[in-house]
Predict the 3D structure of the following.
Amino acid sequence: MKGDGRLGHDLDPGDRAPQDACGVFGVWAPGEDVSKLTYYGLYALQHRGQESAGIAVSEGSRILIYKDMGLVAQVFDESILGTLRGHLAIGHCRYSTTGSSVWENAQPTLSSSEGGGLALAHNGNLINTAELMERLPAGAIKATTDTEVLTALLAQDGSRPVEEAAAELFPEVKGAYSLVWMNETTLFAARDPQGIRPLVLGRLPGTANVGQDRAGNEKTGWVVASETAALDIVGASFVREIEPGELLTIDERGVRSLRFATPEPKGCLFEYVYLARPDTTIAGRGVQATRVEVGRALAREHPVEADLVIPTPESGTPAAIGYAEQSGIPYGQGLVKNSYVGRTFIQPSQTIRQLGIRLKLNPLREVIEGKRLVVVDDSIVRGNTQRAIVKMLREAGATEVHVRISSPPVAWPCFYGIDFATRAELIAGSLSVEEIRASLGADSLGYISLDGLTQATTIPADRLCRACFDGRYPIPIDQDRIGKYVLEAQR
């Protein structure tokens, strides 16, 4: 494995942050360099998964896949992309939610049938994987992911059109799934009836050499992606969100839509807190604007007398800006982040581990010495990072440290595509706010209320999944038949 020399959360395995959902990207654009478009689309989605990356392409007669462990820029280079030629492609960057982080579980997955090949990429997590697995013959799959099971089921009957098989299968699939998949000629996309994970459709302008359709209209290129930021980076214009319970088919005839289930929208509230890029738009509202508004609400709910508002970079920056605007307390940079923090494949020594958070953040003593500080962050999982920051700021001369968090207490695990700690490991799962404050060593601690966060999104509460905050799961969970290693346990 090629290391990138970066420092990541592996430095402190005792305080692993919420691990992001995966990123998916698909493009149908004859005449364009679809592998490079997919590469840049995945590059824009890298924050959603850093364990492995892959691209599948087709020129009309066969599907070619290249994937490996690592970041997008580690897996692909100019020579590799040059071999991936075709008129359509899909791509994936993974964080493992079902199945270990190994090459066999990297995506896109590939399955063959009498009707041809099928490659698929998945963002989300299924909760009836074990039940779905029972529909397949023994030895049907080699990997241990819910995505591999889904791919095999889709390809099981190659005599029918792919969209017909998908429309029959998907109502039986439970959990979160935003999918892009392809056969040799066609791009497909679908979103679960709850629409838990985001998925958007975009259009490429002035696509070269695409020609005309049978009616004489100019053809165009189409893009499907997890976030609008990925459309921006490849120059595609946003068309619309793919609706919950909707399946799209994209080929030379354009885009066709099919409803396979009644929509029951439950978009993930944590996308606004942490997962999505700030330059992404969800449900017509920019994530950055939402996070700034959360900071304003946080200031109204938890005011304090202080001299300076500082963020934990970069996750707390938008909310810190909003807190400063609402409170009238000056905003400043009190912590400097190492610009090369990311994943690493080099195991740190014990000496380096003991440096902990200082490898990622370092205080600006001249800014914070003698000051009463408000420190804004997006969430607290186990509390180790915030505890270290409070200690670091006091050592640098801060007279008071008031912690403000732009999400409610995370007290429940996610089963729909975010790899949180277990409830027993989540600090808010067992401690009160006052007990957490004492554990952090802060002078005060304030979380945004669940209603305050929800109102900032402008989306009604009954159209959001808020389970990690309130424990109310929109899709019933059978905890005896789920888990990251549910398929591995069967072997």
About this structure: The chain has two domains: 9-266, 284-459. The radius of gyration is 23 Å. The CA atoms of residues 120 and 278 lie 27 Å apart.
